[in-house]
């Protein structure tokens, strides 16, 4: 089994995985699930949370994380993802990759005989969405019937939240400018999206690869900033989420990011625990 978009999990599997993540958070060194196993972690893009959480997670499960940075595989010199998959499958027990084109991950998964995990592509960020659901489950004790409002650029994070939310029974309301919306989520007015939400979520306005379009994006997204006034449209117990890195003053104000309703730092930590549960799910024998 692979984990490329999050759609690979049933509702029951997703819920068991999240509950297992909460157990692992309570006792971080309780599992030796990867004892004697190696996981290749391929990083074609810079990373803070993904790199640290996956490397630490494999180690805490008593496995060996094999870190492969940009340029360290022959893919940088034209070797096909197919050939890389065939080689790595003979040597490691799982492959994680953080890269650009989603097709690269799909091709690796097609030809690998070990599980492949999408650690981020331009189209999907499913591991982050798992940590987001875990954070909601911790805060509210349930997922069914919750409303999450995503405000900002329609991107890979938006798509992954829509997928994960659909499986979990979480309503995901999206507010994006028409020019930056996903086809599957045309975008609501920010106040409408946030109204009665249990969580208000945002992402950076200028992602990796969008730098040439930075000024236009900032102009389009200026009305979509999460500030105290917008947050006031949500439920009184609503939390604030951000997948980081953050730019206070752009997509979110500093007082909201660091305020008492922010669950952003729990959310970041939960990358570790959710991914450990995912690694167990994918790499342990059925």
SSE blueprint and pairings:
Elements: H1 11-26, E1 38-43, H2 49-60, E2 64-69, H3 81-89, E3 94-98, H4 102-111, E4 116-120, H5 126-140, E5 147-151, H6 156-168, E6 171-175, H7 190-194, E7 199-202, H8 214-221, H9 228-231, E8 239-242, H10 254-257, H11 264-283
Can you offer a commentary on this structure?
With 286 residues, the protein is α/β, with parallel strands linked by helices. The chain contains eleven helices and eight strands. The protein has a four-stranded parallel sheet with strand order 2-1-3-4, with helices on both faces. The protein has a four-stranded parallel sheet with strand order 6-5-7-8. Strand 1, helix 2 and strand 2 (64-69) form a beta-alpha-beta unit. The longest helix has 20 residues, at 264-283.
Structure summarized in a few sentences:
With 286 residues, the chain is an alpha/beta fold. 41% of the residues lie in helices and 14% in strands. The chain contains eleven helices and eight strands.
User: What do the pLDDT scores average to?
Assistant: 96
Sequence stretches where pLDDT stays below 50 over 5 or more residues:
none
**Percent of residues in β-strands:** 5-15%
Shape field: globular
Largest sheet: 4 strands, parallel
Q: Please bin the fraction of helical residues.
A: 40-55%
**Class by SSE composition:** alpha/beta
- Measure the end-to-end span: 11 Å
Element pattern in H and E: HEHEHEHEHEHEHEHHEHH
Q: Using only CA atoms, what is the Rg? A: 19 Å
What's the total count of β strands? 8
What's the number of helices?
A: 11
Enumerate the strands of the largest sheet in spatial order, edge to edge or round the barrel: 2-1-3-4
């Amino acid at each position: 089994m692979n984990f490329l978009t999050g759609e690979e999990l049933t509702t029951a599997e997703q819920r068991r995985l999240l509950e297992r993540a909460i157990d692992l958070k309570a006792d971080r060194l309780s599992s030796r699930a990867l004892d004697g196993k190696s996981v290749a972690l391929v990083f074609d893009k810079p990373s803070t949370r993904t790199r640290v959480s996956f490397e630490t997670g494999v180690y805490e499960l008593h496995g060996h994380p094999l870190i492969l940075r940009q340029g360290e595989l022959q893919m940088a010199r034209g070797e096909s993802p197919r050939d890389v998959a065939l080689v790595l499958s003979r040597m490691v027990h799982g492959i994680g990759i953080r890269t650009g084109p989603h097709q690269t991950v799909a091709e690796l998964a097609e030809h690998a005989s070990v599980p492949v995990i999408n650690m981020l592509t331009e189209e999907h960020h499913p591991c982050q969405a798992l940590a987001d659901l875990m954070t909601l489950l911790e805060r509210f004790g349930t997922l069914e019937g919750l409303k999450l409002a995503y405000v900002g650029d329609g991107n890979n994070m938006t798509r992954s939240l829509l997928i994960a939310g659909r499986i979990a029974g979480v309503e995901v309301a999206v507010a994006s400018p028409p020019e930056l919306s996903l086809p599957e989520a045309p975008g609501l007015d920010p106040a409408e999206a946030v109204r009665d939400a249990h969580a208000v979520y945002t992402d950076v306005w200028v992602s990796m690869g969008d730098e040439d379009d930075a000024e236009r994006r900032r102009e389009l997204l200026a009305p979509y900033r999460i500030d105290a006034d917008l947050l006031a449209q949500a439920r009184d117990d609503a939390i604030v989420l951000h997948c980081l890195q953050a730019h206070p003053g752009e997509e979110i104000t500093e007082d909201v990011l660091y305020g008492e309703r922010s669950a952003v730092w729990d959310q970041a930590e939960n990358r570790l625990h959710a991914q450990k549960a995912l690694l167990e799910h994918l790499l342990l024998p059925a």
